[in-house]
Automatic annotation (TrEMBL):
Keywords: Hydrolase, Metal-binding, Protease. Residues 199-358 form the Peptidase M20 dimerisation domain. This is Dipeptidase. It holds the Pfam family Peptidase_M20. One of its GO terms (biological process) is proteolysis. Coiled coil: none annotated. InterPro entries: Bact_exopeptidase_dim_dom, Cyt/Met_Dipeptidase, Peptidase_M20, Peptidase_M20_dimer.
Amino acid sequence: MQNIKSYVAEHKDRFLSELIELLKMPSISADSAYKKDVITTANSVLKSLKEAGCDTVELCETEGYPIIYGEKIIDKNLPTVLVYGHYDVQPPDPIDLWTSPPFEPVIKKTDIHPEGAIFARGACDDKGQMYMHVKAMEFMTRTNQLPCNVKFMIEGEEEVGSVNLAKFVKTNQEKLKNDVILISDTGMIAKDVPSITTGLRGLSYVEVEVTGPNRDLHSGLYGGAVANPINVLTKMIAQLQDENNHITIPGFYDNVEELSKAERAQMAKAPFSLDNYKKALDIDAVYGEAGYTTNERNSIRPTLDVNGIWGGYTGEGAKTVIASKAYAKISMRLVPNQDWENITELFKKHFESIAPEGVKVKVTPHHGGQGYVTPIDSVGYQAASKAYEATFGKTPIPQRSGGSIPIVALFEQELKSKTILMGFGLDSDAIHSPNEHFGVWNYLKGIETIPFFFKHFTELHK
């Protein structure tokens, strides 16, 4: 890839300003109040793909938010890379913990990013990483160095479970036909330690509701005489894990893949400082399933976490009330071979079974997806490894991620192609949290590296 470094340096300011404009759009797919902003963002992505050199660009309507499709086919005899990303973002709450407004992007220096990082919701997940591919495409087309065919599929519902993407993929298999799928929605170990994500956890996400009396009650007149749904809910949640933080749902671990000692030893070679990990999170101890290291707990082991819990009076001052209802949102990260629909059903059956008399329980499944593992001997992985070697000067480390991209397993099932996960974010980028950010260096390094993947994949593909 000739002149890629000079091209990125020459256009650095424009690349940053374009991303900042995209980040100003509050494309929150989970909140219908932002529907207009999500649509505006979709149209902005469409315009960017046109300007980057796609010959065909379409806004594909779904029952929810549109999918933006683009392509440039230079020779049907050459391989095709399908790039996937998403333009929707997580809600920014809690707003008061942000040091700058979530949709007013600013570049600030940090200890990890002395050259600056862009602080905004979606900076790393996934607008910044998705836009690296758009700018890499621009470089390849404007310098006549696009070595193969390229297709883009950028959706607006990833943060709410990609509800309509599955239907789109199933009904557009010919349009989406490819030789490899390329995604940047993951991270790497460190700025000087490149890595390629080779595994993702699956996900089961549910909401639970516990109902007691038919109305809120005076806690003095009724306290101790009727079941308090909030008390009951917290006790039920506490029963979902034992003293070793092992999940107690019957059948939950039946299909969990147990890695060999040799595989776990390979994982342990990745650079990791427990002291730095605790310091970065301002905690004095780590916590998790007994018998596993921190890096194993957050990647190769399944988990169960309460993501939100509410009920009763939470306003200022006091109100002595026994709430009629209590709620919680619970997510379970799953490992390969665990079927998310089966796990959801096991959770529902178990949670209902541990409810005491005096309350009614309702479990509402929201969304989920399967885990995924990609082989390191594939042509796609080899091409990604060579791409990192070209720009970082060192071989990347294969790494399993604790996160979930539910549609990756669907892609393999429906499109029969492997996915390569080339992420450039860092664990410290605070995705899904207040003060999410993405290093300027990481953003530009991604634009520089991605064209090398296209080059090497084309050369290695037979």
